[in-house]
Each structure stands twice: as C-alpha cells, then as structure tokens.
Amino acid sequence: MEEKFLQTEKVYTISELNSVIKNLLREEFPDYIWVCGEIQDLRERKDKPHIYFKLVQKHPELDEIIAQIKAIIFEEVKNKIFLRLKEASPQFELKNNIEVKVLCKVEFFAKRGEMRLFVFDIDPFYTLGKLAQAKARIIENLKRKGLLEKNKQLEFPLLPLRIGLITSFDSAAYHDFINELKVSNYGFKIFLYNSYMQGKFVEQDVTKAIDFFNQTSLVDVIVITRGGGSTADLSWFDNEKIAETIANSSIPVLSALGHQINTTVCDLVAHTSLKTPTKVAQFLVEKIENFKNEVEYLGEQIMDKAKFYLERENKDLKAKAVRFDSLISHYFLTHHTQLTEIEERCLSNTRYILASAKNEVRQIKRLLNIHLDNFFKKVYNLVDSLQTKLNLLDPKNILKRGYSITFKGKKAVKDASLLKEKDKVRTVFFKGEIEAEVKRINEEGD
Q1: CATH number of 2-122
Q2: CA 200 → CA 97, 98, 195, 211, 413, distances in Å?
C-alpha cells in the first residue's frame, strides 16, 4: 500500500505549489469581496505612500486573536477612502483596535508564499454602527445596574480646590487645564496621575487613577481630561469598566474629553461633563467664584440685619430711657412729702443717737479716771515692794555682810562633795576675789 502511494504521488516544486494556490484563490475569489475584522499594527508614515496593517479576528469572549491576515491600502485609492470616511464622520480616522468592513481583493504572492488583502474601499457606517452597538450595550448594562446616575447623586463640594487630575503629563490638555486655573489666582492644589489617554492601556491607567484618589482621600473632585481626537480615539472612553469605576467613585468625577459633538459613556456616568480641558477649569473657577460671591452676599446680609436690629434696639432703649426718666420724676414728685418726713425723722434719730453716745462716752471717761488712779497707786506700791525685795536679795548686799561665793569654772559651788583635791577654785568677796587650790575636803561641814 505504501509502495503504491509513493509511486502515484505527484511531486510539486514550491513555485508550482504556490501557483496552484494562487489559481485556486482566483477561481474562488474572482472579484471584490467584503471582509470584516479588527485593525492591528497599523503603519502609516509620511515617507511611505501605502498603508499597511493586519485584520484580525478575536475570540468572542476572550481577548485572543484566532485568525489574522495582512492588508494594504495603495496610494492611488488612499485619498478616495479618506474622503469617504470624512464625509461619513468628520472625526472618523483609521486606528488600531477598531472593527472595519473593507472591500478588497485576495492576492497571493507566489514568490513569497504570502497572502494579502488589497483594500479598495471601507464602509464607515459598519464601524460606526459597531461602535454604536457596543456603546448602547454598555449604557444598557449601566442602567440595569443603577450606575448611570450614581456619581451624579454625590453632593458637589462647595470649595473644590483639591483636584485629582487624570491626563497625560505635558500634553496640550494638561497645559490648557493648568493655565486656566493659574489665571484665576485661586489656591488650587493639583494632584496629577499621569495616564494614557488612548490605546490599550487607557482602561488600566484610568481605573487605577480613580481608585487611587478614592483610597487616599487627597482630593475634592476628580477630573478626567484629554485633547481633541477622532471618534476612534474617543471610543477608548466607551468602556464599561472605566464607566463602572467612575460611577462607584465616592468623589465627584468631571469628564472633559476634548470633543464638541460626540458623548462617550464616561461622559454619561460622570457627575458633570464638559467639552474641553479649558471648560472644566472654568467650571471649577466658577464654583469658587460662586462660593466667594455667596459668602460676600451672606456677609452683607448679616451686616444689614445686624444694623437693622441694632437701630431697632437703640430706638427701643431710648424710648425706655425716656419712659424711665419720666417715671422717676413722677415718683419723686408724688413722694416728695413722704421723703421730707423721712429725712426729718432720720435727722432727729441721728441727733438723739449722737447725744446718747456722747453722754455714754462722758460716763466711761469719768469711771476710767477714778479707776485708773486706784489702779496706778496699787501698781506703784507693788513696784516699791518688789524693789525692796530685790535689794535684799542682791548678792552684793549678802557679800557685804561677810559672805563669799566660790566658783569652779563658771558654776557656783554649793556642795563640797562636788570638789576634788587640787581642783582650782575662785572665791569672790564683797571686795575682790582670790584663786585657790583644794587641799582638803570636809563633807560634814564641821
């Protein structure tokens, strides 16, 4: 069996095989055909006349490529295709990751063994329709989950001075936004999260930025902004995950994606949507100005009310003062006689009290004179008696009668037993003193 197979097998050269494949493809696809797929690896350069890209087919549920083919738009049809796209939508451009329907011919290059599509036309309405369908599906899902109005229900801060800015650093949108805030001279504080604003990293960057600002509580509002772009550029913000993150943000989110006509899903779920970075900056400045004006207005109202109440109270006090003065005058007029009687009674009582007190003082003075004389006589007699006793007890008077005092050191000796032989003693007489040494001690005193 194997031997028969080997004998009957026809052997092709590569060029023969490729020629057969080419002929078969021409027979199968003799005319133009429509092919749909997603654009990838788009290469359009000023120094190259043609446009090269791939058309890919992705798995309906997974983000995986299951088939792909190379395609080319030649220079001679390029301008016609671009004109057609512009007529369909002024902002429509060929971009990576958008699905298109192209009119093309299938060509096989036998020399290289490579198949390619030659594109002659593009149906823009197919792409726009696909984008619209995807957008409508996302909006419906958001409505069903109750997320479309969730962020709008947040109370907008009175003083949105701390701003979480999500944009591409050093982009035109960044500078437009920052410069507009600087002109206002208000104390805005900007926290920038540098993010891709187009391409496959948009979803990842923007959702991370929103989550970051919500976790840190650094800002009063979040602003997502970018410069102008095509419909394809803006389609990055027709993204369900970004929309859900915006809706679930506990901080109000402002979108300003730089477009005048189209509204993205992110615009729909944001607390407030504006057209350009400049517009959203002006909106924030206006909020601050409104707050300042409101404060000034309330201040004026408070001053006016205070002035009104002060004037009213002042008038009331003046009226009360006049009335009080009138009442006092009336009281004194009506009670003049009574007050005169009271005055006379007070004066009479005062005179009586003073006279009584004067008599009492005189009586006390007379008694004091009598008793003081007796008291001082007794004191003088007592002093004389004490003086006599002191004179009798004076040691000098005792010594004068022939007595003497013996000292050992500074102490008087009253008992001979306190002395010892050879002790030095000092004996004081009425006149003079001697020093002696103890020779013998007689304790009996005989």
Answers
A1: 2.40.50.140
A2: 8, 11, 12, 19, 127
